[in-house]
Amino acid sequence: MSDVTVRLDAVSKSYRLHRGWYGSLRTEVASWIRRLRGADGADEMFWALRDVSFEIERGDVVGLIGSNGAGKSTLLKVLSRVTTPTSGSYTTSGRVGALIEVGAGFHPELTGRDNIYLNGAILGMRRREIDAKFERIVSFAEIERFIDTPIKYYSSGMQVRLGFSVAAHVDPEILLVDEVLAVGDVAFQTKCLNKLAELTEQEKTIVLVSHNMASIVQHSRKVLWLQAGRLQAFGDPEAVVEQYLRSMREQLTTEDPRDVVSKAMTDSDRSIRIDSVSLCTPDGGVPAAFRSDEAACVDIAYTIVRPVPNPVFEVTISDAQGYFLGGVTTRFDGIEIDTSNGSGRLRLTLRPLIFLKGDYAINVHVRDVHIQRYHDSRNRAAVLVVEGPSIASREVSGHINYPHKWEVL
Q1: Contact 42, 31 (CB under 8 A)
Q2: What is the pLDDT, as a whole number, of residue 245?
Q3: What's the 3-state SS for the chain?
């Protein structure tokens, strides 16, 4: 029989979306009475989780994925007993250590020293146990100089380091870690990942939330995908992440990219208008998808509304979740744009494509050469579909396949 440490059975969690003050005490009381009688009130119910059921076995490292608002943080709060489910039941076996948001469990007026004892007590540690681990907690968090400084003066990174250190040293049977680790610097992230590996070797159960799919695949034994509060898939990391990425690609290509114009720009704001952005091969072909390692061209057609001195065209690329992956500008390559003509065209050639399999948003901006003023902006002006190796694999890391060659010397 398997050793189950986390079990959820049809767990749902709802929140009431309050629509604010209705104007008088009488209307507020009337609304409150209607709710007591079970009648529909003015407030709307939002279901953060709906009928979520799964089991996690001892020693599993589970990656928890999903878009913003999918219910990931709510699920962690249920597991850590910060909130209770509206319906359904759940059980956890053993002590739970949780780092679910910056500063959670800390009192801003207390010092780092006092907060270690406070947070440790909240997580179930006795004072004698905290005394024995105190120096290790402080050393791991790298806050020796500030241990007697009130937490309210700590940076977000310092709070994350201290929170993770306490949670990791509580000797948890179950460790819950949210995206907050992204706040720390690279060196501390490495230290955290090594600590997670150490806990994994001790057969601790770890639930890790991240939007970095490469990291999820690399560090998880199973992946749980939530979408709109419902469980979409749970199982093999590469298979579930591939399903998730496919879903994100479908969402990205649902809307016609030609209609996606930045709402922050009005016609009066535009000195230059981006008319169209299209993708093609260097010979003019328009394939449904581009191969990694081959070339792709971004063609930009524009109209000069008002002449401006040497505008800068910028093309940036984002993944399906909107995370910035880099970009290039005409200024970097010394390209000058003549705005005396009424219109023009530009072509950017990406050769070779270094992106792994996926759909990528092409964003085009035109800005002033001297200051950060935009003449026009088109987010998701086109969608670049790339075929090739997938990021849902332990053989690669991230979205980029850098041109490279290995040699044993």
Answers
A1: yes
A2: 82
A3: CCCEEEEEEEEEEEEEECCCCCCCHHHHHHHHHHHHCCCCCCCEEEEEEEEEEEEEECCCEEEEECCCCCCHHHHHHHHCCCCCCCEEEEEECCCEEEECCCCCCCCCCCEHHHHHHHHHHHCCCCHHHHHHHHHHHHHHHCCHHHCCCEHHHCCHHHHHHHHHHHHHHCCCCEEEECHHHHHCCHHHHHHHHHHHHHHHHCCCEEEEECCCHHHHHHHCCEEEEEECCEEEEEECHHHHHHHHHHHHHHHHHHCCHHHCCCCCCCHHHCCEEEEEEEEECCCCCCCCCEECCCCEEEEEEEEECCCCCCCEEEEEEECCCCCEEEEEECCCCCCCCCCCCCEEEEEEEECCCCECEEEEEEEEEEECCCCCCEEEEEEEEEEEEEECCECCCCCCCCCECCCCCCCCC
CA distance 155 to 177: 19
Q: Which tokens is 79 given?
A: 């597991």
Token readout for 33 is: 């009475």
CA–CA gap between residue 150 and residue 3 (Å, rounded):
42
Look up the pTM and report it: 0.72
Domain ranges of the chain: 52-252, 257-387
Residues of the chain with pLDDT under 70: 1-2, 18-32, 34-43, 102-103, 180-184, 252-268, 391-397
Task: Among 2.40.170.20, 3.20.20.140, 3.90.800.10, 2.70.50.60, name the CATH number for the domain at 257-387.
Answer: 2.70.50.60
Peptide bond into 108 cis (omega under 30): no
Q: Beta 61-65 vs 222-227: how paired, if at all?
A: parallel
The sign of the dihedral angle between the CA atoms of 34, 36, 40, 46 is positive
Q: What's the pLDDT score for residue 346?
A: 95
Residues in the chain: 409
pLDDT of residue 119: 87
The pLDDT assigned to 18 comes to 62
Which superfamily does CATH assign the domain made up of 52-252 to? P-loop containing nucleotide triphosphate hydrolases (3.40.50.300)
pLDDT of residue 257: 46
Rg (CA), the chain: 26
Query: φ, ψ for residue 323 (rounded to 5)?
Result: -80, 130
| pLDDT given at position 258 | 43
